[in-house]
Amino acid sequence: QLQASGGGLVQPGGALRLSCATSGFTLRDYTISWFRQAPGQEREWVSAIRHGGGRVVHYADSVKGRFTISKDNAKPTVYLQMNSLKPEDTATYYCARGRPALGVIRNVEMYYDWGQGTLVTVSS
């Protein structure tokens, strides 16, 4: 299971940290990605932390340099630190579990387990 939390209302330029608490599987054996979906739009991949012993991470160009993904295998939880937030970051954010190859890491259908979503609203 995946449970996302940490969303809320924040002003432009502000920061939030999302959490994805996991259970029922070994976190290091899976890639965890964050996706987001704004009203009326398709679900969009945001960031991923890869399976395996390393901490290989990937980011969408739209969030590179502003967002940081990390994980704590002991908790076991994946985090998304979001800084310098913009109104266009407003969306429901979902964490997802899978083992996608790098070339398809952005594909929604490569993930078979999803959290319930947490709403992030960036507005003044």
Question: How would you characterize this protein structure?
Answer:
The protein is mainly beta and 124 residues long. It contains no helices and eleven strands. It has strands spanning 2-5, 8-10, 16-22, 31-37, 44-49, 57-59, 67-72, 77-82, 91-98, 111-114, 118-122. β7 and β8 (77-82) form a beta hairpin. The radius of gyration is 13 Å and the shape is globular. The model has no long low-confidence stretch (mean pLDDT 95).
Describe the structure concisely.
With 124 residues, the chain is mostly beta strands.
Largest sheet, if any? 7 strands, mixed
Q: What percent strand?
A: over 45%
As residue ranges, the low-confidence spans are: none
Shape, principal axes of CA atoms:
globular
What is the rounded distance between the termini?
Answer: 34 Å
Average pLDDT for all residues: 95
* Number of β-strand runs: 11
Q: Roughly what percent helix?
A: under 10%
